[in-house]
Design brief:
Blueprint: H1 14-38, H2 44-62, H3 73-99, H4 104-111, H5 114-125, H6 132-154, H7 160-183, H8 189-212, H9 220-246, H10 250-256, H11 260-272, H12 278-302
Helix pairs in contact: 1-4, 1-9, 1-11, 2-8, 2-9, 3-7, 3-8, 4-11, 5-7, 6-12, 10-12
Length: 311
């Protein structure tokens, strides 16, 4: 067997790929439930600000001191803007959606449409045409989400403000993804992570103080969720995502994202005793098929993915 050329990343072994993918999906999906636990003791902006302040310190100590940093003020500004959209805007909306009654499973399902929305925006404004299969996938994906959300509205589990909050989160993470690609494609990932974390903390800590009175009850539950979100999610899952992408696993990563909403729903059922209904499972399956039709084709064409990192 010939060795891979020096300039190409070494492909991961199948066992390594499966283990990393399983960790990634489990941590990302269960992270929605960890958020629901945290929001019982802390207001959303406050919790996000504390989480990202800690994550910044951890990231700096873990890899930031060895990173290559931006050379110009404009580069710093672009990276910070992408970070605020992808983390502060995204998590602020998704956390308030759950605070206002949206379940972890439904929140994860709607936010899993981010690759689909990105493809639509790219097609509409960046003149990258979608194939007929992809356009059909957009319609199928939206149909699955409508099925789930309409069912939850009937049950009183979805409100207008929770939907507005998760829609804001979806818009922010999509905007952050596109902004990152346009202005920050060549930056050192390690320094970008640190800047993202610092910018998010700088925005959310003052917001938490001004809007929420910095409402947080310090107890073991908050300590546990912060440990989970900082170490396992923001550092661990983020690193694994980009390791998979840089080892040529773009299409596979796009595919495993479809497991996130079911993992979130199952985790919520296990911890809070909220069983997903048959209609919810059906809607999730339909939505995941739609997103797969859009993203798998695009990833195969470009060998890149159209997803945003876990947060």
């Amino acid at each position: 067997m010939r060795a891979a050329p020096d300039h190409l990343p070494t492909p991961l072994a199948r066992s390594e790929r499966w283990l990393l993918s399983a960790y990634f999906v489990t941590v990302w999906g269960a992270g929605y439930v960890a958020t629901r636990i945290a929001l019982q003791y802390a207001a959303p902006f406050t919790y996000i600000g504390v989480r990202y302040a800690i994550a910044f310190v951890v990231a700096m100590l873990a890899f930031g001191l060895r990173a290559s940093w931006p050379k110009t003020p404009s580069q710093w500004g672009h990276i910070a803007t992408a970070g605020v959209l992808s983390h502060a805007g995204y998590l602020g909306g998704s956390h308030y959606a759950q605070r206002w009654g949206l379940s972890a499973g439904v929140t994860a399902l709607i936010l899993a449409l981010q690759p689909l929305l990105t493809a639509v925006v790219v097609s509409r404004w960046l003149h990258v045409r979608l194939s007929r299969l992809q356009m059909l996938g957009v319609a199928i994906g939206l149909g699955g989400v409508v099925l789930v959300v309409a069912h939850r509205v009937d049950g009183g589990a979805v409100t207008a403000r929770s939907l507005a909050a998760v829609a804001w989160a979806l818009a922010c993470v999509t905007g952050g993804t596109l902004y990152q690609r346009q202005f920050c494609a060549a930056v050192d990932l390690r320094s970008a992570v640190c800047i993202h974390f610092a910018a998010t903390a700088a925005v959310m800590l003052p917001l938490g103080a001004a809007v929420e009175g910095f409402a947080i009850i310090w107890n073991w539950q908050i300590a546990a969720t912060l440990l989970y979100h900082v170490v396992l999610s923001s550092i661990g899952a983020y690193t694994i995502l980009h390791l998979l992408l840089r080892r040529g696993e773009a299409t596979g990563v796009t595919s495993i994202l479809y497991l996130t909403p079911p993992v979130a729903a199952l985790s919520e059922w296990a911890i809070f005793g909220t069983p997903p209904t048959l209609t919810m499972w059906l809607g999730m399956a339909i939505a995941c098929v739609g997103v797969a039709m859009v993203t798998t084709s695009r990833a195969a064409q470009s060998n890149t993915t159209i997803i945003e990192e876990p947060s």
